[in-house]
Structure formats: structure tokens, C-alpha cells
Amino acid sequence: MSESETLDYDVVIIGAGPVGENVADRTKAAGLSTAIVESELVGGECSYWACMPSKALLRPVIARADARRVPGVAPGELDVPAVLASRDSFTSHWKDDGQVGWVEGIGVDLFRGQGRIAGERTVTVGERTLRARHAVVVATGSRAALPPLPGLADVRPWTSREATSAQRVPGRLVVVGGGVVAVEMATAYQALGSQVTVLVRGDGGLLGRMEPFAGELVAEALTEAGAEIRTGVSVASVAREGAAVRVGLDTGEVVEADEILFATGRAPRTDDLGLETVGLTPGDWLDVDDTLLVTGTDWLYAVGDVNHRALLTHQGKYQARIAGAAITARVSGGPLNDAHTATADHHAVPQVVFTDPEAASAGLTLAEAESAGHRVRAVDVEFSSVAGAGLYAEGYRGRARMVVDLEEEIVRGVTFVGPGVGELIHSATIAVAGRVPVDRLWHAVPAYPTISEVWLRLLEAYRDK
């Protein structure tokens, strides 16, 4: 292909991470000619700097912790070089040949470079122009947001990218933030040998978007593992002096570390997309309807992190499937139905935090349900009442909460905290997304003796209150 030619497609997608790939898969399978544009590695943030490498770092940590809770098992220390090598394998050593092969294998044209919108249904990649007959899809994701601290760039701070791709374990690591990235990386690096200090600006503690007990139990475990967690403090200054980072706090204290990780939020990758050519503001999150169509347009879609609905890979892939179906339906002139609308974004989002203990949730927290105007009741159960939990781990510590809508008698949200609960959460997701009546859940009998028996304990607690 000539570097300066103009090419026509039915659909043009900017961003070849898992979200963009899923849109491409759906539109191509529907018979629409599809092009996808990527400025970095095909496979995106999740494959190389987020989901896959972070879980590869955490899996040995959690496996050892679980084994230590089983009588008769005496696991040794973690082999740090082997853990890092396994992580490197899961990222394909930051090479995207396999992902490129998949894109080409489904018949989608891949363009390397920065994709920019250049007017309605038009995308440029270098000197090439790609014209979309039906839809342009923005799937560029998000990036780490750094605070405006003087001299921060000179400190060479870690973000999630550096934390998940580091080739050595620092002796001392300061983690700024209390969200998912902060607690997962604190868990991993404390176990791998770092002395970790977690600095949380507010007084709400860790995992502020989950039920309060989730952050409390994770903080308790991190502290027992040797990490220091400080809440109600802010970073006022940072400076690198030789190999050390000096972190000045608003209290006047100074904390020293070898590396500092800022896990203080995300920002949309929309600042260099040419949004101004179609009346949108560069650098903003893109507002969409439930078919993922950008507000005020009939051709531009925004899928995944970039629309700020749920910054989770699995939720972005769900949106991608919805968007692909919606685009296809509109092209064919067919009616839109539930298969073309991302309703789960509003009430049935699942999430797992891979700490020790794990924290997993689906749907609304108690506070979110009440804020939405639902008349609800929460029931809490300790996992110590579940026989299967005691078999899973000696001294199993954890808690579950079920939020029940008292008017509709359905489950609005569920939160589990404890070892292995990530594998429980899909049952909660089905209950929430399917609006399963509580009286029907009595007939979903959990196998004995598994930790899924917590469902029976929750239903009993709801009945007996």
C-alpha cells in the first residue's frame, strides 16, 4: 500500500487493545470490512502493562499464601527471578507478533501509527487516510494520571507500567494511592522482598469504591505482611538524591525509598486524536449512550476505558461486543434490542482485586444502592461460618455481603473478601445481572463442602433478620 493513499472501509477502529480487537472481531464476523490502528503494541495495556503481567506477579504470591494456610504444606520462599521470568513470558517479552497474527488471521487490516480523526468518518495514520462508510470506533483506553508535583519527571516515578514491567525488586517502595493498582502492587512487591509503604491521601482507607470492610481486611493483611499503611497524608514534594527518592509529606515528614509508584487514577487517551475536528474536546472522557455511540454523533463510538463507564478490561470487552452488534444492526437497518445495549454497565459490573485476601464484587455496594434510591438491606456473613472455607484454608478470614432490594426482592450487589473468592464472583454476577428473585436463589444449592456455601449463609441471614 502506498504511504499517501486513501482507503475505504465499513469500520475503522483506533486502538488495538483487547477492546478494539473485540470490536474488530464482531464487525468482521458480520461481513463488514474493518481496519484497526495501533500506535504501540497490538494487544494494548492489558496484555503488556496491566492485567496479564500484574496477575503473573501476583499468582505465585497468592499461591504461596494459600499453601501456608493448609496444614502439612510447608512452601519455601519465592524464587524472584523465576517469578519475573514467568511474568515476562506472559507478556510475550513485550513483543506483539502473536497478537498481530491474530488480527491478520481474521482478515482485519492493521495500520501502525497514531490514528487521528480528521473530520466526520475520516481517520488519518501518517500520510494515509482511512474513510469509514459507517463507523469510527475509539478504543484508545486510559493512561496513569500523575499529580502536578514540581520536579516529578526528574524523579522518574513508577506508574502501573513500570511496576508491572520492572526487572528488579526495589528494597524500599513507596506506593501513593489506595485503589486497585496500589493494593495489588503493594501485595506483590511486599511478598517479593520490598519494604512497602502505602500513602493514602484521604481518611477512607483502601479500596474506597468497594464495601468498607474490603479495604479494612486487605489493609489488615498487608500490615501483617510487613507493609506500612498511612492514611490521611499527602505527598507534598519528591526529589531523587542519588539512588534514593525523598518523599516529603504534608505533615513535614520525609519518607525515603528506592522507587515511588503513583497509583492515583487514570486519564483518557484522547489528547492526540483530532477530536477537535468533530467538535469534541481533546483530553476529555467521551460520553456515550448504551450502544456506545458518542453523544451528538451518529457514526463515532467510544468503547472501553475511554468512555469512563467501567475501567475494567472485561467490561470493555463486553462493551466491544455490544458496539459491534449495534454497528452491524444499524448497517443492516434492523431494530436495536437488549443485545445492542450495555445495560450491565449501570448495575452489574464485576471486579476482582487480586490481593491476599482477594476482594471481589458484583453490582452495587450498599451506599451506591441507597444513593440510587433503592430501598435495600445488607446482610453480612463471616466466612468462618462456612465449612468449605475452613477446609480451603486453616483460620480462613473473610466476609461476604449481599445487598437485597426490599421492593423487588432481587440482589442488587454482592461483595466477597477472602482467599479464593475471585472464583465465586461469577455466581454473584449472574444473580445480579439476571435479577434472580431471592426466593429462587434458595433452589440454587451450593455444593458441600465448598466456600460457595456462603450463598446459603447469606440467604439464611436475610431470612432470619
UniProtKB/TrEMBL annotation:
Gene3D superfamilies: 3.30.390.30, FAD/NAD(P)-binding domain. Transmembrane segments: none annotated. One of its GO terms (molecular function) is flavin adenine dinucleotide binding. NAD(+) binds at G177, G178, G179, V180, V181, A182, V183, E184, G265, D305. Binds 1 FAD per subunit. Pfam families: Pyr_redox_2, Pyr_redox_dim. Disulfide bonds join C46-C51. Keywords: FAD, Flavoprotein, NAD, Nucleotide-binding. Residues 349-455 form the Pyridine nucleotide-disulphide oxidoreductase dimerisation domain. It comes from the Bacteria. Residues 9-314 form the FAD/NAD(P)-binding domain. Its cofactor is FAD. GO terms for biological process: 2-oxoglutarate metabolic process. InterPro entries: Class-I_Pyr_Nuc-Dis_Oxidored, FAD/NAD-bd_sf, FAD/NAD-binding_dom, FAD/NAD-linked_Rdtase_dimer_sf, Pyr_nuc-diS_OxRdtase, Pyr_nucl-diS_OxRdtase_dimer. FAD binds at K55, G115, T140, G141, S142. Belongs to the class-I pyridine nucleotide-disulfide oxidoreductase family. This is NAD(P)/FAD-dependent oxidoreductase.
